[in-house]
C-alpha cells in the first residue's frame, strides 16, 4: 500500500527520514530548508510519497511525482535540489500548542505503522537544532527492526 501525502515536507538526515507536518504557513518548508543547510537531503516539499517496505515493514518516503526536486522558499520562489528516499524515523509536527517539556513521546499511525511524533513550536531560530535532537533522541534507528 502506498499513497501521496499532501501538505507535508520530508528531509533525510544521515539516511533517516524526518516527516514534517503542520498547518499551512507554519514553517514546514522553512524547516526543511534549514535542515538542508545542515546537511540533510530533500525527500519532498509540500507532498511526499510513502509506502511500507515489505521486507523491513518500515515506512519509506520518496519524492512525490508532481513536485520532485522542488522546495519553496517563501518570498523568493522555487529552488531545484537533488532528492532522495529514506525510511521514516520521526514525525515533527509544527504547532503553537507544543508542550514546553513533554512527558514522553506521542505516536502517530501512518499506513498502519507507528511513528514517534514530536510537537515543536514553529517560531524559533533553533528549530532545525531541536529537530535534529528529536531525531537522535526519539527517532527510529536503522537497527530498530
From TrEMBL:
**Which InterPro entries does its entry note?**
Hpr_kin/Pase_C (IPR011104), P-loop_NTPase (IPR027417)
Q: Does the keyword Kinase apply?
A: yes
Write down a Pfam family by its short name: Hpr_kinase_C
Source domain of life? Bacteria
According to its UniProt entry, the protein's GO biological process terms are:
regulation of carbohydrate metabolic process
What keywords were assigned to this record?
Answer: Kinase, Transferase
Outline the extent of the HPr kinase/phosphorylase C-terminal domain. Answer: 9-83
Quote one Gene Ontology molecular function term. phosphorelay sensor kinase activity
Tell whether Transferase is among the UniProt keywords: yes
Q: What is this protein called?
A: Serine kinase
Amino acid at each position: 500500500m502506498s499513497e501521496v501525502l499532501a501538505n507535508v515536507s520530508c528531509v533525510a538526515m544521515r539516511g533517516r527520514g524526518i516527516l514534517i507536518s503542520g498547518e499551512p504557513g507554519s514553517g514546514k518548508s522553512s524547516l526543511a530548508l534549514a535542515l538542508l543547510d545542515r546537511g540533510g537531503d530533500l525527500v519532498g516539499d509540500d507532498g511526499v510519497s510513502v509506502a511500507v517496505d515489505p521486507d523491513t515493514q518500515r515506512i519509506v518516503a520518496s519524492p512525490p511525482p508532481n513536485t520532485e526536486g522542488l522546495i519553496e522558499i517563501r518570498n523568493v520562489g522555487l529552488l531545484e535540489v537533488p532528492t532522495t528516499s529514506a525510511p521514516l524515523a520521526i514525525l515533527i509536527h509544527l504547532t503553537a500548542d507544543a508542550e514546553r517539556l513533554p512527558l514522553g513521546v506521542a505516536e502517530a499511525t501512518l499506513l498502519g505503522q507507528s511513528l514517534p511524533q514530536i510537537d515543536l513550536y514553529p517560531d524559533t531560530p533553533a528549530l532545525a537544532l531541536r529537530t535534529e535532537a528529536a531525531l537522535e533522541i526519539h527517532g527510529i534507528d536503522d537497527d530498530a527492526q
